[in-house]
């Protein structure tokens, strides 16, 4: 009995010892590796282009009368603010009112003739059906009746045109905005389609500029731009919204960039300078980084940088492709973006997802810290 208890005790000790041997030791927490960093800000030289531009309203319209006539009244001046439907100018309406009256009288006459022609047609039809007249007389009456119907339709259309011309003697604003151009005065004869006013819609402004044929392929819709005016201290951000498909004057292609938040006081007609960062053939933009930040890859023109992730305190292995190597130990690469923080000193010892600690605050666009 006693030997049995001893055996059970020895087995328990052996099992506990075996379990203790099988347990893995707790992992040793690796300390964060200190690194020096560089903040990507500067676009590779040669990819920044500047163009002279003119500020324009995003929505602008030239206004004219649809008819020829003598201007009786001009109700607005250049620079006035107008609302949709507001009267801008009025032609002399007397000749157009007379045209309406003449068309109304002609319509009444033709309708009276129609009544007579219809009555004669019905009479001849009855006589023909009863055998009192020949077929020829009935055909003549039917032909006169249908011709009179056509004359009534023509008179109705003529009256509609006369009434439309009378309405068109008043020129109104199509939308809210400002009168940016006025070329008419009262008591002058104007032609149909002659530009009299230009109205610019409120709010939106564009920078219009020309791009030479050697560069237009690198201008794409939606690309960012910076618009600088001498009257304002800060540049205004913009987005390219229109790219012309045919060259204009000076063999340049028209391009428009919509200003995102134009400041108060900026007006159409002001001179500006537009700065754009051109993309390469693959549609990517090169940024300058220190050569020490690039870790060579397995093949030619392949490499990596380690981008610092502030949220997790780790680095992300990011593939890059070199474009231009500079004498100042800087290289232009694609694959990074403005604002990225890349590791410089110690980059060769990093792995993807490794915890790091910044040795110095990153200096935007400066030398590696």
List the helices and strands and how they pair.
Layout lengths: L1 H21 L10 E3 L1 E3 L8 E10 L2 E4 L5 E6 L6 E2 L4 E5 L2 H37 L4 H33 L2 E3 L4 E6 L6 E2 L6 E5 L3 E8 L11 E5 L7 E8 L8 E8 L11 E7 L9 E4 L4 E2 L6 E7 L4 E12 L4 E5 L6 E3 L12 E3 L11
Parallel strand pairs: 1-23
Antiparallel strand pairs: 2-22, 3-12, 3-16, 4-11, 5-7, 5-10, 6-9, 7-8, 9-11, 12-15, 13-14, 13-16, 14-15, 17-21, 18-19, 19-20, 20-21
Describe the structure.
It is a single chain. This protein has 369 residues and is of the alpha+beta class. The protein has 4 domains: 33-46 and 284-358, Beta Barrel (conserved putative lor/sdh protein from methanococcus maripaludis s2 fold); 48-58 and 204-277, Elongation Factor Tu (Ef-tu), domain 3, CATH 2.40.30.170; 63-91 and 169-199, Beta Barrel (OB fold (Dihydrolipoamide Acetyltransferase, E2P)); 94-167, Helix hairpin bin (Helix Hairpins, Orthogonal Bundle). The chain has 3 helices and 23 strands. Strands 3-12-15-14-13-16 form a 6-stranded antiparallel barrel. A hairpin with a 6-residue loop joins β18 (295-296) and β19. The longest helix is centred in the N-terminal third of the chain and has 37 residues, at 94-130.
Spatial extent as radius of gyration: 42 Å
Largest sheet: 6 strands, antiparallel, barrel
* Strand arrangement across the biggest beta sheet: 3-12-15-14-13-16
CATH topology of the largest domain: conserved putative lor/sdh protein from methanococcus maripaludis s2 fold
In N-to-C order, the SSE pattern is HEEEEEEEHHEEEEEEEEEEEEEEEE
Strand content: 25-35%
Mean pLDDT: 85
Q: What is the count of structural domains?
A: 4
What is the tally of beta strands?
23
Can you give the helix content as a percent range? 10-25%
Low-confidence segments, given as residue ranges, are 362-369
In one word, what is the shape?
elongated
Question: What is the count of DSSP helices, taking H or I runs of 4+ residues?
Answer: 3
CATH architecture of the largest domain: Beta Barrel
